[in-house]
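User: Batch of two.

Assistant: Item 1 of 2:
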Amino acid sequence: MARTYLLILFFLIIYQIVNHWAILSAPYDVLFWENRFSRSQLIFGGKAEVKLSDYDIYAIAGYKYLHGDDPLKLDPVSPPLGKLIIGTGITVFRSAIIMNLIFGLMALVLLYILSRQLRLSPSLALVALILIFLDPVFRESLFSSNLDIFQLVFLCLSLVAFFRGPRWFFISALTIGFMMATKFYLTGLLWFWIVLAYLFLRGNYRTFMQFIYTLPFVALGFILPYLPSLLHNPDFIGFLRFQRWLTSWWAGNARVPWGGIFPIIFYGEWHTWWDKRVILPVPEWTWLWPASTVAGLISFVKNPRSLIWLWLAGYLLFMSVTSAFPRYLVLFLPFAVIQSLTLLRV
């Protein structure tokens, strides 16, 4: 049965790659996008004649970072690591989305390993991957220059390394730092706090301290992508001031009505908070979202000390008090699916 599920997953992946081959193989026109960038909102603010999407900005900014631009000055509101990965894809493969596909496939491999670590059978683990891959918001992350798929890979790496035991804690901590250096650092910190809470609840003081000792690796993972900037201008106090400003910027940006993530998950409705505050349908929505969310949270009854459950509850709470976008569920839905299937585990 496991082989059948593996074949199904393989053909689903091949079908999607063939279906998106036009955008995967389209060469990234650096001169065109540099021209667009020079006339965009990042240069002229509200008076710009060109409005770039987040995905457009991530791609051209990542390319420019690799060619000498300072991430502390160019598009500094999001950390540089994810954009650097996209820029590497442009430089090496002339594609703005090839690294998203590569990292998406890495995420599937890591999610399978994680499912097996949680004692799902090979068949159930592959069913989880099929459900995850069939989710439109996950597939969209494979074929657009977004940052969320990179965070998912780093979160999966952190989980897999953590479950390997204390000798691997430094990898778990390092990838937490990478999470923090990919998008706003608070998501990575949230994961770090959840790990500490999990170890504390288990009452194993020695293991708790072993993880605390890896804190320098969290800092290392966060600082590494900024290293060229810091070497060029070794003002670490200025770097900390910049992070304080960034925190204030995101805090101001997050002043939105509470609970916006719930209608996205349960009804496929996105209650926007800008302009006229319209309600937009979420085209990626499927019944898998509410079903896996409810089942994943119910799984607490079977395993009240589950680290995955703590992540689901913590991330859901975090998303309920900040600006919620459907694509942010890339860090939630795969684990909701896996946690739901643990209810079927014998």
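Item 2 of 2:
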Amino acid sequence: MAGNPEDIAGEKIQKVLIADPSTGNSVSAQYPLPTDGDSVHAKDVDIPNSIMGDFSGKPTDFFDDLHSENVDLTGNNPKLVTIHFNRTLVSPLIGIGSSEGGNFSNVKIIAIVSGGIEFPIFDNSGDNTKRTTQFFQFPNAGFNAVRIEFHTIDTISLTNIYMPKVVSVSATIETSVVFAASYNGVLLANPLNSSTDMNVDGSITPVDFVYEVTGLTRALWHRSFIELTDGNQAFLSDNFGAIAGGLTNGVDIIVLRNGVEKVLETWKTNMDISLTMFDFNSPYRQGEYIGRWTLPSDIGSPISLFEGDKIIFRVRDDLLTLDSFRNKIKVKQ
């Protein structure tokens, strides 16, 4: 769209405003060119599929500026707002703010993926502290929409939501080379007896094998390896090892972040393992299998873990007939 011409050094210069053809909005700080920017902007919001509930305003208000107040004055509990995106978003945190004299509390955040499947990524619903700013960190998660719930009858005021985008970058500089001191390969262990042998009976009481972040600001989960041996025969896809017909409940792979468990995978058959673990095969002999799961190749980045966070492999069936079953994770500290 052309603007008014200006006379510069005796010549008429025509100013031109660039517009995004998909929205008609002129390019500006709040409506940048449609690239994979640093955080969610108004252009990323799927307005027809977003739900404001009883909040005033429109879903793009949260991303237009820092002072568009959206208020739910009702006594409903919980109060809900759902932000749907035009493309799948991968993010490590969500920040919300209230800068016009109001506040919020009792926050729970639900991620929504294809098919309407929901999973909680942060649960602070029992905390009634009134806040004007709060950040909610979690392992890198990909989702199509996010629902923010406020489990209180009190008035809730929101002005802005901040959601950074995870962008994969491949670069190496001398100061960022991973040296041996930052490497940690850990066999997951039962916290009750320190055993790393996962061929246990978890059919009545599930048995956890855990890595917990302690004494570190952050650990990055890059890779996981499996060792599974059972007899001397090739594994059938519908079995688990050589356990015929697979498992009833399975082995859950879980990330615990801020007290909230997120199940990443559930293994009930060898095929389930193969769909997670790259090169799940028998390099030595029949019935002896290894596999590797590289998180940056799978989801675009390692999973960030913070003090007190855990990686849990939860055995929920009887695996005593397996010859051996162990899992090792590789983290950068």
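Confidence is low (pLDDT under 50) at residues 174-179.
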